[in-house]
């Protein structure tokens, strides 16, 4: 059987094209990134821009594939899977990192940060970078800063709060976390652990008198139906962390590592903040329309109680000794 010379030529061309294709594919590092949020969530929308920036600026050498809706694991599990390497990268929050590197517990401190710009600058400094490198030794590389996703405020059912004394005897919902419970107590309240999924019912049944959350949670969970007063006191920032498996990170060239970190700082973190601030302004107006009364407490008095509790927790080993003073000193330097 004679083979046409055109068929032979076609096979040669196909083989060459196939070889080129597979060489390109072999030169591309794919990073699969999972998170628990839906596709319209601000952090996910920002991740799409992050992925686009990385692929463009690495000339296609690094490609980020994003898996929302808990496709690669739910809650803290996706971060744990990133640590052990079964997931390449993930989106979490600073509280999760504390179990791997205790120094990150400092970011659960109430009333520590007045200004996110200062917090962003803090992450470029030596104190934060030491924390990042210590975390990397556990298998997790933090990309960029702890990212702003709104401020958290106190809400109450039947009493406006201006000072910690006003919270005396009031039950305020707390998460099941030693640090969160301690700082809720430091505000002057009785911390009452309630799962987030059960919080609306707990407010409705008056099991707790109030709670602390961001405006998006207050709005979308309809807490305004059970809460009258909204205290604009920035208890703490709602935050996100973007982490990658350290071994995976080290497979990248130094140049591409730099681009990944740059993308996290200059694209992802800034985009999340921009989207969140627009949403916050709109939601505050909506909550007022729903009848919530906005209160402006004496934040300095709350800060004093929080500082006292921070020293107590540090003495008990919540984070490394001396870290709180280091962070406060750096904040003061950056503020000036």
Question: What is the secondary structure topology, with strand pairs?
Answer:
Layout: H1 5-26, E1 29-34, H2 42-57, E2 62-67, H3 77-84, E3 89-92, H4 94-97, H5 116-122, H6 126-136, E4 140-156, E5 171-174, H7 178-186, E6 190-193, H8 199-204, E7 210-214, H9 215-220, E8 229-245, H10 246-250, H11 254-289, E9 293-295, H12 299-315, H13 323-335
Parallel strand pairs: 1-2, 1-3, 5-6, 8-9
Antiparallel strand pairs: 3-8, 4-7, 4-8
Q: Describe the biggest sheet?
A: 7 strands, mixed
Taking pLDDT < 50 over at least 5 consecutive residues as the criterion, the unreliable ranges are 19-25
Report the CATH architecture.
3-Layer(aba) Sandwich
How much strand content do the residues show?
A: 15-25%
Order of helices and strands: HEHEHEHHHEEHEHEHEHHEHH
Structural class: alpha/beta
